[in-house]
Amino acid sequence: MNKLLLLLLYVTFFVTANGQTSYTEAMQQGDSVLKNGQYKLAIDKYFAAQAFDPAKKDVVKEKIKLTFDKIEALRQEAITSNQEVEQALREKQRQKEIADSTVQILQQLKTTGIGAKYQGGIVFYWNDNTGKHGLIAAEIDLGEFTWQEATDTCNRLDLNGYTDWRLPAAEELSTLYANRNVVGNFALSNYWSSTEINEGLAYSQSFKYGLENNYNNKSKRLRVRPVRSF
Q1: Which residues have a Cβ under 8 Å from the Cβ of 11 and sit 6 or more positions away?
Q2: Which of 25, 83, 175, 194 has the fewest C-beta atoms lying within 10 Å of its C-beta?
């Protein structure tokens, strides 16, 4: 009996402290604060309504379930929003990396553009569009040599801090001729290539008439312009 009395006193105190005087008023207050997003307070109001009329607990139960559904919907919305923010940040980072990479490539292309001074000579050819690989020609001729002398001299050459100079192949020499005005300092004469025809003959390029794949006796003395790869 005493326990029941204490329970009734507690319920009375609870509903009075929260400003409800009837089931209907408590439910209306719960609906009102629910619309304002005050979910905890709404639940308190619905429990107060149930205290006024326990017979309507199923109605109250549905109201409370509705409130928790709204809370869960907000939680899921927050998760989705957070995921969208994270995805946007990842995309922004990816775009930044692409932009940085593009800038690096453009800077490399500017550094290694045809005609640029780079790694001991003048760039006259790219092997790819990144500007990271290509061919460099020395800025001046080495002189006139036989084919074997030319080959040996280029292989032993230590020029501008690089020791991997070589005699250009026939196709490389043709490309060098095409860019002769960019590289500069060529004579109107024949230049040796490293491409051999046989033991006595090798290809050369005329920088006077533009004739390519000329062949000359290896014992002849032709001009030499060394090249190197980068």
Answers
A1: 51
A2: 83
